[in-house]
Amino acid sequence: MGLKLKPIDVVDNITKEEFTEKYLKTRQPVVIKNMSKNWPAYKKWTFDYMKEAVGDITLPLYDSSKADPAAPINAPVTEMKFSDYIDLIENEPTDLRIFFFDPIKHAPKLLDDYVFPKELMGGFLDKYPSLFFGGEGSETFLHFDIDMPHIFHTHFNGRKHVLLFEYKWKERLYKLPYATYSLEDYSIEHPDFDKFPALDGVEGIECFLEHGDTLFMPTGWWHWMKYLDGSFSISLRAWDKSWAVKTHSLWNLVVQRNFDNFMKKNFKGKYMDWKEKEAIKRAEYALKNNRPS
Asked: Is the CB of residue 286 less than 8 Å from the CB of residue 198?
C-alpha cells in the first residue's frame, strides 16, 4: 500500500474568508502562488543580493546526519563564511544547510523586502521571521515545530519537495518520546516498509515549491523538505488562537525540551537507545490498533 500521499491544494490568490473557512479553521495546508509577487523580495532576492545584504559573516551549518545523543537537537556540524556558502549551493550539490537564519540580527535590510499576510490572519510574531538555506539534495529531517505555530513558508531561487503529515500520525511516524522529530533510521521519501511497517498506510500531502510560492503549514503539521536546487526560504510565523495549542507550545518549550536535554546530557546513548526502542514500540501498537482511526 505504501504512503497515501495526495497533492496539496494550490491557489493563485485567496480571500480572507476562503482562507479562514477552508484552511485556517480546518488546519489544512495550501500553496498560494501569488502572495509574494507584490513583495520587493520577489525580484530582489537573488544569491548576489543576499551576499550583499548579509555581508562577510561566518555562520553555523547543519547537515542531515543522525543526532549526537549527547548534543542538543540541531547542533551545527561546521561553519563557513556566508558568501562562500552561497557560492557553494549555487554551483554544486551539498548536504549543508543554514537553519533558522535571523535577518533581524544579521541583515536588517531584508526586513523591508517582504510583507506579513495580515490580510489573511492575525497573530504574527513580527520580530521572528526566519530564513533557511540549502544546497541541492539537502534535506530537513521529518519534524514538527516545537512552538506549534502556523507558518507561511515562501521559497526563492529554486525548487523544494515537501511532504506533510497531520499531527495525529505522530506514533505511526515513529515519533521519539520527548522530542519533536522522528526516528532517524528511515527515509520518509523512500520508506522501507518491511523494516518500518507502521509507515505503511500513513496519509500525507505532497507538494513542490517553486520561486515565489508560499506554503501555509498549520499548527502541528509534520514536515520533511528536500532542496531540489540550491535555494532558500523565509518562514513567517503566527500563533493559533486556541489556548490548547498555546498550552501545548508552552509544555514543549519549558518542560519537554528541558527534560529531554537533561536526560541526553546525563544518560547519553542509554537514553537515546530507550527513546528509539519506545518509538518503535508505540508505532507498532498504533499500527496494530489501526490508529489513528
From this structure: yes
pTM of the model: 0.94
| Cα–Cα distance measured from residue 220 to residue 249, given in angstroms and rounded to the nearest whole number | 10
Q: What domains are there in the chain, each with its CATH number?
A: 4-288 (2.60.120.650)
Note the maximum CA span of the chain.
55
CA distance 86 to 210: 19
8 A C-beta contact, residue 142 and residue 182: yes
Question: What does each C-alpha distance from 102 to 111, 121, 260 come to in angstroms?
Answer: 10, 23, 25
The 10s digit of each residue's pLDDT in 232-259 is 999 999 999 999 999 999 999 999 999 9
CA distances, 191 to each of 16, 120, 171, 183, 208 (Å): 38, 36, 16, 12, 19
Dist. CA 291–CA 54, nearest whole Å? 47
